[in-house]
């Protein structure tokens, strides 16, 4: 499954002016757990700072019907 998220800010003190995240996940273990990879790009509000790229690998464990744990490495 694919996912995407985008956001922007015109406020006085945002962490990013613009941020875009895309990634993919694969359902495993009887369609309850998810292994995924995501990539994020961020545009900081200070022009002296470079753009930031982040990659994350995660594994979402479905422990019960209403409880999930998602460790990740960035």
Explain the overall architecture.
- The protein has 74 residues and is mainly β.
- 0% of the residues lie in helices and 64% in strands.
- The chain has no helices and 6 strands.
- It has strands at residues 2-8, 18-28, 33-43, 52-64, 67-69, 72-73.
- Strands 1, 2, 3, 4, 5 and 6 form a 6-stranded antiparallel sheet that branches.
- The radius of gyration is 15 Å and the shape is elongated.
Described by strand count, sense and barrel closure, the largest sheet is: 6 strands, antiparallel
- Structural class, by secondary structure, is mainly beta
Order of helices and strands: EEEEEE
Q: Indicate the mean pLDDT.
A: 92
Number of helices: 0
Using the CA coordinates, give the radius of gyration: 15 Å
Fraction in helix: under 10%
User: What overall form do the CA principal axes indicate?
Assistant: elongated
Note the beta-strand portion. over 45%
Distance between the termini: 20 Å
Strand elements, count: 6
**Uncertain spans:** none
What order do the helices and strands come in, and which of them pair?
Layout: E1 2-8, E2 18-28, E3 33-43, E4 52-64, E5 67-69, E6 72-73
Antiparallel strand pairs: 1-2, 2-3, 3-4, 4-5, 4-6
Descriptive labels:
single chain, 74 residues, mainly beta, 0% helix, 64% strand, elongated
Explain briefly what this protein structure is.
With 74 residues, the protein is mainly β. The protein contains no helices and 6 strands.
């Amino acid at each position: 499954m694919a996912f995407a998220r985008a956001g922007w800010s015109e406020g006085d003190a945002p962490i990013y002016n613009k941020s875009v995240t895309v990634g993919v996940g694969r359902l495993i273990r009887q369609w309850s757990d998810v292994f995924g990879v995501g990539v994020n790009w961020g545009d900081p509000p200070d022009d002296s700072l470079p753009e930031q790229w982040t990659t994350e690998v995660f594994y979402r464990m479905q422990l019960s019907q209403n409880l999930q744990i998602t460790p990740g490495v960035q």
